[in-house]
Amino acid sequence: MRSGSAIPLSAVTGQVWPAVPQAAGQTMLAAQFQLERSQWWPAETLARRQLEQLRSLTAFALKQVPHYRELIAQHLPEVARDPNSLTWESFAQWPILNKADLRDRGTAMLAAALPQDHGGMSWNFTSGSTGVPVRCALTMVAHFFRSALALRSYIWHDLDFSLKYADIRPGIGAGRAPGWGASTNAAFATGPSASLPTTTDLNAQLDWLLAEAPGYLHSTPSNLRALVLRSRETGRIPRGLDAVVSYAESLPVDLRQLLREVWNTRLIDIYSCTETGTIALQCPRHDHYHVQSELVIAEVLRDDGSSCATGEVGRLVLTDLCNFGMPLIRYEIGDYAEAGATCDCGRQLPVLKRIMGRRRNMAVDPDGRVFWPAFPSDAWYQIAPVRQAQLVQHTPASIEVRYVMERDLSEAEQAQIAAIQGSEMRYPFEFRFSRVSAIARSPGEKFEEFISLCLPEAP
């Protein structure tokens, strides 16, 4: 952390430094002390601690959660008799839970009784990008650890707590607050924060950003890209941005470069989901991600259920190790990711090199090749001032290009964009262009650059 910008708040009158924090601050700082140590543990030590916590969660689920009591008895009878017999080998045989299962099982997923010291429960709702509605119950302990990981990200990336923090995202109102939020307020003094909903007109967002002049901006990748493109278009550039923090959507390949070139700032991406919270944080040295293994098990699996090797892309299956209210064990989130090699930063937390998004964000060509398409939208902007675009594949040979712009693309511009996109996708698709006033988001308020409506069935 930057010198002098992250001194804990003191609860003792006159004792400013060294601080004597209040109870909530002591708890948050204690969590950070443990997280600071565990990130450097050898992989074997980390796996051993994970297994200890997994056995504790399994023992609780056997007693209190009807779904797991039935499932473990049927598929892992030896674990049903003795939860401490669970090994990584037997865990790999644990049946995978998907979104439809989570929705259909209803109250059978809930703990009948919760340990009193886990606090009460609250509900989170999501439909992600697929439109399958899911609700999840979270304990106060689970909420605490989500805040702890947010603070960990700030510490990793050396954020200056004295600066203003601006937040533009769905589901919030316009307002101001004296601190950054739950992740920092209990333990540290920070600069003020300001918030704005993403439903705000883009020009008004840019006006607000220039007026607030924050040190940090938090928003979704699609909103950030639209903002930085409008900023470049108008020449109205925010000053003093130390970093931009993105979350919730797959990261466009050109967003980091755009932010460097137009706003002269860095991008910090956080990979999370409503169901399990933070999954992985961007490495302080690299653009790839470290799985937050103290609190989540993230498996990258091939279609046959075996673990992917470094460099392979597979489906993500998650286990939340701290939420006892509605345990999610081997939960398939629907995203794909590329397994990465051990990082040279020294952290032994597993690496996700790339987050690929949903299966429906894959393309297919007439030869049957299924692949993740590149989308060089900034190259498009060099041809015409396209504000936003989305590719929708209707057949293996044809793709609709939906775009938002002040005017129609000319035939020459369409041909240039089709040539660039076809070259990136290594097939001369037939591109059909449709100018629209706005591009609808998914039911979960996420923006998707590419959607396939003609993928073959997954294995």
Which features characterize this protein?
459 residues; alpha/beta; twelve-stranded mixed beta sheet; four-stranded mixed beta sheet
Summed up, the domain count is 2
Q: What general outline do the C-alpha atoms trace?
A: globular
Number of helices: 13
Distance from N terminus to C terminus (CA atoms, Å) equals: 46 Å
Whole-angstrom Rg: 23 Å
Which segments are poorly predicted (pLDDT under 50) over 5 or more consecutive residues?
none
In CATH terms, the superfamily of the largest domain is ANL, N-terminal domain
Please state roughly what percent of the residues sit in beta strands, choosing from under 5%, 5-15%, 15-25%, 25-35%, 35-45% or over 45%. Answer: 15-25%
Q: Reading side by side through the largest sheet, how are the strands ordered?
A: 4-5-3-6-7-8-9-10-14-13-12-11
Helix content: 25-40%
In short:
By secondary structure, the protein is α/β, with parallel strands linked by helices. Helix content is 31%, strand content 24%. The chain contains 13 helices and 20 strands.
Report on the structure:
With 459 residues, this protein is of the alpha/beta class. The protein folds into two domains: 1-358, Rossmann fold; 362-452, GMP Synthetase, Chain A, domain 3. The protein contains 13 helices and 20 strands. Helix 1 crosses helix 7 (140-156), helix 2 packs across helix 3 and helix 9 (202-212) crosses helix 10. The longest helix has 22 residues, at 43-64. It is globular, with a radius of gyration of 23 Å. The termini are far apart.
